[in-house]
Amino acid sequence: MSRQSHHHSTGRSSPLEPGGSQAGGAPPLGALNALRESEIHFRTLFESSRDAMLVLGSNGRFSAGNPAARKMFDCKSLEEFASLTPVQLSPERQPDGRPSALAAREWIDRAKKTGACTFEWRHRSTSGTEFDASVQLVRMELDGETQLYATVRDISATKAVQMALRANEQKLRTITESALDAIIMVDSEGRINHWNSAAQTMFGYSADEVLGKDPHAFLAFPARSEAAPRPLANLASSESGADVGRIMELTARRSDGSEIPVEMSVSAVRGDQGLGAVAIIRDVSDRKRLEAAFQQQTAELSQRVRELNCLEQAAEVFEKNDLTPADMIRRLVAFLPFGMRSSEHVAARIVFQGAEFCSEGYQESPVQLTVPLVVDGKRVGSVEVSYMACPAHAADEPFTSRERTLLDQIAARLARAIERRQSYQQVTTLSRELEVILEATGTRLLLVDDTCAVQYADPATQRCYGLLANQKCHRYLCLSSERCTDCPNEYNQESSQPTVSFQRLPAETDRIFQRTIVPIRVEQNRRLFAELLVDVTELKAMETNLNQARKLEAVGQLAAGIAHEINTPTQFIGDNTRFLRDGVRDLEQVMMCVDRLIEAAGNHEQVDSLLQETRKTLDEIDAEYLRAEIPVSLEQTLDGISQIATIVRAMKEFSHPGTKEVQWIDLNRAVANTLTVSRNEWKHVAEVVTEFAPDLPLVPCFPADLNQAVLNILMNAAHAIEAKDAGNGTITVRTRSHRGWVEIQISDTGTGIPENIRSRVFDHFFTTKQVGKGTGQGLTIAHAVVVEKHGGTLDFQTEVGVGTTFLVRLPLQEAAARTLHDTQTAQGD
Amino acid sequence: MNHTVLLVDDDANVLHGLTRALRHQPFDIFTARSGEEAIDVLKRRRIHVVVADEQMPGITGGDLLAWIAEQFPETTRMVLTGHPTAETAIRAINEGLVYRYFTKPCNPIELAVAIRRALEDLQTDTLTASHDSPT
After folding, report:
1. Which residue has the higher pLDDT, A74 or A1?
2. From the CA of A576, how many Å to the nearest CA of chain B?
3. For testing the chain A interface, which of B53, B104, B107 should be mutated: the one with the most A CBs within 10 Å?
4. Which residues of B touch A635 (CB under 8 A)?
5. pLDDT of A196-219, one tens digit each?
6. Which residue has the higher pLDDT, A156 or A490?
7. Is A563–B108 a contact, with Cβ atoms under 8 angstroms apart?
8. Nearest chain A CA: its distance from B18 CA (Å)
9. Of the N and C termini of chain B, which has fewer Cβ atoms inside 10 Å?
10. What pLDDT does residue A510 have?
């Protein structure tokens, strides 16, 4: 350009007309020489210039052109070149679309008018090659003719470079504009000279707002404030500053004041005016968020692991049943802090029933979490964790909800463990006490499972038979390796009712044990059997005595009545006997008279006198009366004696001490005996009607017990009648045999049994009679005897105000009685 | 007029035996088989002494004697029972206002002595205080 301008100025002062006509008048010689020198100088310049130099004549054609011009436009000669017009050396249209002719005209006109102009032009050589050129037109006045002097420089190479540059820049711009990262460039002064759209989006400032400003002034990277306050500015001093090639994590401020975490990489850029910098900034808030979430999750996870560890350790401690609550708490408090986030800063304390248990280094702290310890609904202490030193992260929320939950759980589980421990202790104490009680009462207790394996045996049993754990109970109860044939557990499987039996134990054959087997459902599918063996030897002996006493009592109950039954005949037997004694004595006098009469036979005088005496005697002794009464009184006396004999026999049969054997008896006779001995109890209130089946078979039974049962029913009947209307009732007693059973039917015309008490008739000690009248045992005993002892049935039909009928049914099969007999024998009659 | 004694017992043999035993005694003997029959006799004739059994079907001896004590207080009352109980004895004394209490078996001589003493007491009463005799 400087050369051009130089050329231009030169050209202006010394225009050349190569090959053209000489201009001007005759110059002076000095001047002529100078002129020649100048001409040579310019011609050399003209000829050697690499720019095309041409002269455009006023006719619009080229009048001159240097070799560079001819070469540029591909002309062989000056003549050929001189024939051409600028339009002919141009394409149809210029790059801007205008017709070259029109554009050329304009530029030429402008040059003519203004004296000079420079512009770019698209040329075309004669060979058709198009190229861009820079054209300078300068107006020259020569010989009164206006000519234009043109300098044309081929700028196609420059143009290509410019195009490439522009394309490059465009590409770069596109790249920076489309980049997701903010790209900011600063010049050597530290002023922003590039601000892409991502930067605009990221920071909220438009390019217009920030160009030329110092980025540090408003982007404010606070986190870097101390370490490197001006990361971009640092580059000005050194191309390889500390921040180059490194990714910095910073916090940037956006236009709305909010801050975002960014990552920035900085590179130095050497520009025209020194060292600038380009920063590529990435918004990492999403990543930071993810990182934070990840960190939180990691923290939670590790907390969870701590919790689980803590809970697991706690569970281990709680499971140890041999630990006392204090032992348990002592262990628990030691590892409790490790369940907390900052275990190194935390200590724990558990207060239980006034006692304190602390982990190492515990001291009172204002930052603590306390959970009450509630055992059996009562607060008995607390579980605490405290921060010995409060770390930064714990300042806002010293304990997380997880930690609270953990502590709650630990406290709750501890409470449960203590409850369990306490109840375990209670159970232990209880079982120890129970064993003492068992021992003191001579009671044996076995717990046996379904397979008869012993799960528990009381100390006395263990002493007697050795340790029985898991051995089969029949090994010692029955000395058998097999399950007993009548194993109560066997038929007890589905029942929940206890079964009671009596047996002797092999090692203690002189004792009788009452064996009560109680099924216990432990779990859904697990059953145990509690075998209670109570030594009832003394009780049995007492019971035997009691049974005898009870029979005697029945006799005693009847004794007064029986005495009456005997006293009454005794009265008249005595009366009659005395009468007979006196009568015989009286008759003796008659007999003496008769003797003397016989001696005096034939002696009439004496006979008459004796006859008179005899008549007198007969009269005196009321012989008529005697002769009538003596046979009668004898009959009555015999009757009375028979009465006494009957009642004595009946009494003997009735109260015969019960045999342990089943006896086959005549039931009619037994019932008649019972009626006899109890006659005095019913004869004043009722008439007894008997309808005994004559063909009744012998019945297998225990006579004394059966008599007692019938007696009790009869007494009940008599009382029912007495309560209704004294003296007018009827008791009907029927016997019959019916389909393998023998029945005794006892009907009364008494009060009947009110509906509301019918179900209680056979209950122990239930009575409607006034105090002193009944013991409430009569019908209970009758029921026990008939049903339990004889395998029979005892039922009743009753109508209030009409009467009651009791029906005793006894099985005739000996087998039935025999089985029962065995049972009863086992029970020790 | 002879003195009259009424024996009451539900057992005929007892009545027969007593009648035989007391046949020589200076009083007339009447018998009744129940309380009802005894009341019947008492209503028909003057009876000086009643000897009653305690246990009888229907009206018991206790009831009978109590009734007599109220209706015929001048008739002397005695008990002859085969089944003596405190309960009946107390009732006989308190309500029947009995003169003697005998238990079976009893010696008829003792009974006869008691009856005669009762009859003598009656005579003494009649002599000392002139009673209106009921008809």
Report:
1. A74
2. 5
3. B104
4. none
5. 888 888 888 888 888 888 877 777
6. A156
7. no
8. 6
9. C
10. 80
Strands A508-523 and A368-375: unpaired
Q: Give the span between the Cα atoms of B54 and A37, in whole angstroms.
A: 202
Cα of B84 to nearest chain A Cα, Å: 8
- Name the closest residue on chain B to residue A643, using Cα atoms: B13
Distance in angstroms (rounded) separating the CA atoms of residues A72 and A57: 19
Name the phi and psi angles at A777, rounded to 5: -110, -15
ipTM above threshold 0.85: no
Q: Between A565, A576, A684, which is nearest B56 by CB?
A: A684
Range A166-174 contact pairs with CB under 8 angstroms and sequence separation of 24 or more: none
Interface of A with B in 611-650 (CB under 8 A): 625, 629, 632-633, 636, 639-640
Q: In a 3-state reduction of DSSP, which class is residue A485? A: coil
Domain boundary among A503, A535, A567: A535
Residue in this structure with the two tokens 């015929």, named with its chain if needed: B72
pLDDT digits (tens, 9 = 90+) for A293-308: 898 888 888 888 888 8
Helix, coil or strand: residue A129: coil
Give the number of residues written for chain B: 135
What's the confidence (pLDDT) of residue A2? Answer: 39
Q: Nearest C-alpha of chain B: how many angstroms from A722?
A: 11
- Range of A776's domain? 656-827
Q: Is A546 helix (H, G, I), strand (E, B) or coil?
A: helix
In CATH terms, B3-128 corresponds, of 3.20.20.150, 3.40.250.10, 3.20.20.70, 3.40.50.2300, to 3.40.50.2300
Domain end position, chosen among A161, A192, A217: A161
The reply to whether residue B83 touches residue A569, judged by beta carbons under 8 angstroms, is no
Query: In this predicted structure, what is the pLDDT of residue A490?
Result: 59
**SS3 of residue A802 by DSSP:** coil
Q: Which residue has the higher pLDDT, A24 or B19?
A: B19
Segment A529-544 mean pLDDT = 80
- The pLDDT confidence band at residue A409, using thresholds 50, 70 and 90, is confident
